[in-house]
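Aim 2, interim progress. The first record below pairs a target sequence with its structure tokens.
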Amino acid sequence: MKRLIVLLPLLLLVASPSLAAQGPTGPQKPWVNPFNPDSFNPQPDDGGGGGGGSTDDPVLPGLPTPPGDAGTPPAPFTPAAPAPGVRGASGRLSGSGQAGTTLVPDSRSISGSVSGGLVVDRWETWWETNKFDFISLHRLEDLPSSTQGNLDETSTERLRRLRRVRELLRGQVTPIVHQLTGADDPAVRASAIVALGKLGGDEMVDRATSLLRDGSFEVRRSAMLALGVLDNARASYLLMNIAADSSSGRKLMGSSGVTSEERGTALLAATLRDGISARNLLQLLLDERDDLPLQVLAAACDAAGLLGDARLLKPLAELARDTKLPEYVRSSATTALGRLGESAAVPTLLELLDSRQEPRRAAAAALGYVAHDGMHHVITRLARVLKEETDGPTRHFAAISLGRLGGPAARRALLESFSDPSSDMRPWLALALGLCERRNPDGTLTPLLLERAAKEKNLETRSAYLIALGLTRDPRALDILSEELEKGPTLSAGQAALALGLSGQPGALAPLRNSLETQNNPTVLRQAALGLGVLGDGAAIPDLLELVRTTSNPYVASFASLGIAFMGDEDAIGPLLETIEKQGPRGVTTSFATAAIGQLFDEDRRPALSRLAAGDNYLARPDATSRLLALGF
């Protein structure tokens, strides 16, 4: 660890952060996850950074503080009117000692967010944390599009459009979102600071830094996330000081010591945009791992996987094999091997299929990321897992990996298991076959899925068949999906709506638009709005705008806003600002509208935290990963 003390200041970019004043305090409202509205997150709100770090941990040289007070709270909330011409309107805690917290995603969440409770191994859990592997969102810089393809736009028209968007960003969007970071509602503050990070700009760093001392747990974590998504050298430097529990990091958090969970959160946030400073620190932490708290080590593994750096393969493989470590740490290291995307990790992952429970589960999931359909020895091994493995989650993850790999050999293995599957395997095999068809379409799997879906009596399993049919992108699935959306129970109707969006078929537009007028169930309306957003046809924007204006349900209005944001269409800017102006700086609708603005201007084609959720063994996540994902953004 002495090596870390000497080298870290040389590896991190020199910066001049200012320590901002504490954000709004006082009585806090229950946290409402903007991507999971039906339950608030029961995370502790201890009113400060908490002193969990050891005073014996390394201390880095203090950060210089420039003159000036960057922590001055924003002016009272006074939103500007939209600009002229803009349209308005059965789980378990895993490992030993410091076990990782495991939380379960709500089946209706947007970005794989998690809500309170122990994880139950259901297909919905996997789907909600992995679906953005199969969804590519439209962005503002893209050509306008529909399900028929990109629309015509000359280079001159495109330049004018993007110039208009930039002017709106500077003149209205950024000032309004900045003001919302001073709202008295913690959910609004959290949404606003993450959105501000996505809007970009070096000047955002000071405001995010000031909220590291906020009285709300979720706002503090959101401030770290905002610093991570900024992709800014100075922001990365601040996160690295928190991760190292340096004296400067403690000052930033307003604490005598940084907790293990906070250190892990800082590491994870810093790797979401692939920062060079984060890579260097992670290499050092993994090399000096004997001196790290186990929770920090597990989070460091998760963070290392996000970087995709082959140089981290060796230390991660050593950690995954280390039988002296708790299972949840080994599971995180195993997941990271998959996320590196290096085929050189395959032998280690195959070896780990014979390991203890949590690393075995993680290996079954990770092989789908690093193998390919020509690796017949991998497919044979995963097929054997389907037949012989006694642990359910390991079998489930193996099926998904075969689906990810695709190709004739994986298809044969899945079809063999699907000939007479156990009840727990039916939804997983259906999803795997949908993934197979999506990866290597030949039209042979859709009829089988249609036949099984028509006969399936179990509502949850039937819902999995619907998602699988959407994944195939086969127009033959449109009839059953449309009928289920119109007449099915709430659960299956909602999944049918999303499946129609996944299909990418022009024929999916009409039933989804029609459902906005005919459906009364808020859950189905929310999923229909998301389905339209995933489908990405701008023809539905007027319908979603009308839904935002007319619905009395704040969650429906909010999901409609997010659906528009997923389309990456500039016409969403005015209505979102109008919604904020109407609702004021508090409440669920403003939280969602602010999150939607961040998503709309985000350059990434997936929500910020979806990479952190995808491909892991969600039954054994470290605390930092679970709590960061619980924010939902």
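The second target in this work package is listed in the same format:
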Amino acid sequence: MLDVMFSVILVGAGLVMIAVLSSVLAFRFGAPLLFIFLGLGLLFGEDGLGIHFNDASLAYFVGSLALSLILFDSGFCTRLSSFRAAALPAVTLASLGVVLTAALVGVAAHVLIGFSLPEAFLIGAIVSSTDAAAVFFLLRVGRIQIRERVRSTLEIESGANDPMAIFLTIVLVEWIATDRGGAAGQAGDLLIMFARQMGLGVALGLLGGLLIVRIVNTLRLEAGLYPVLVLAASLVLFGSVGMLGGSGFLAVYVAGLYAGNQRIAAKGALRRFQEGLTWFAQITMFLVLGLLATPSQFPAIVLPALAIALVLTLIARPVAVWLCLLPFRYQPNETAFISWVGLRGAVSILLGILPLAAGLENGHLFFNTAFIIVLASLLVQGWTVRPVARWLRLIVPQSIGPVERLDLDLPGAAHHELVAYRVVPGSPVASGERIPRWARPSLVIRDGQSIRHQFAGKLRPGDRVYIFTAPRYLRLLDRLFASPAKLTEDDKDYFGEFVVHGNHTIGELAENYSLPVEPFDPRQTIDGVIRGRLGGAVEVGDRIGLGDIELVVRQVDDAGNIESVGLVVQPIAPKPERIWVFLNARKLIARLKARRQRRSQREQR
């Protein structure tokens, strides 16, 4: 018994260690990290080095537990401002988009594999949701600085669409297992089940998040116990909501979203603990799912599965995304990128286990098909996210260079925070710029010695400074202590070489750069023109065409006003509107009206 226990610990810990070390190679060669983890599971599995693991129920349990931890952390790290900006389109993608994707993939599976319609739609449901872990790790860990609205849409969608996919999969598995293609349950029963799952998930998730914040802020514990308490509370929430018939996955995501946007004790410690825990959960989940797979069974289904993956990537996902985002003001290049970053990951493999656990006749076929689709998605889409984002001009150059900042927990700090900066070479403070009164350090650490600011003299590169400040000043402090951003040719191509202030009038711009003013009022500000064209809210990277140039938003202040605008003369990349297949409703209607006018003009001639 002891030998078995030690062997399991040795093998399990060794696999995790190898996965962590392999991340170095993944980052160096740009390989999708999650694909590496999954590949390691296959390498050490039954058809590889011989680790025999075929317990589907245990794999589903481990995967569900890991996914609940990942979703709580993803909600905890999502800013409420980002959620508000992209909530409606993201939730539309997470609900209607999942159904549309499942239906379109189901039709393809029916034609390519010859499954009955219920079985084909089950394949569609299994691979219908984007994977929260894959999306979060690619965009955050991969440090791809995508435009805020696009990034928020992808992250919220990937965190919120799992409950819908799980609901569809469970319903179809029960349908096939009980009726064997017969009549499904009453539509009313399905609606009640859906409403209970989603309603309880949202309601109890909010309640759980509220209780987590209240308990953490009320109790006085050892610092190391706060992360343990929050971890246990999130799992209690996950289990209790599931027992009540709700969606535990949705509940932990909502609870994390609420708690992460409130003032909660030891928030810095919670973030650091959850970051490490999420990595561990991610590695464990992919390794276990990789061990469960049997690659020797793949050849029998590989060609149809790859064909389904092709349909999913090039037809089902783009069509579903375009239809869901049609009412919203997304640019065609943004819609195209959202449709491309529909990565499938551990969730699809996890759902592929359900037919196995339920004892369906084609259970292994479902699992192997889902596994191959996930491998293809991670390999093709995961490896091309950065090039596609660059081609679509969605990677926003950084306005400042690297900044080293550490948020420190300070008991009883009320509405202030204690932050630590390391002065980097080339930063404004290292160059001798005067430090405002509100930014003066409380303490300076230089060469291992503590020095009061008034005795430290000019700050030097390498100094560690501690500042007690209000959160609203953190953005300004970052600019003071960061190194200047390195301007590249890509930055000039993106923002242009000329910069104008957002308060300047469109008439002044037209006069200085020989641009057409019509149909705008010359007294209207550039800020007003861009807002009017884009429908109100703006963000860094927004652009509009004006004659032969493009106006690109460079800086936006905390109130959302445009501070500066770049001018791109003769853009080298295709204009977003040329991706006509992804036009939103407003532009599509305008395009159709223009075409009708041209046709009527030709008829009059």
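The first helix runs from residue 2 to 29. This observation will shape the mutagenesis plan for the next reporting period.
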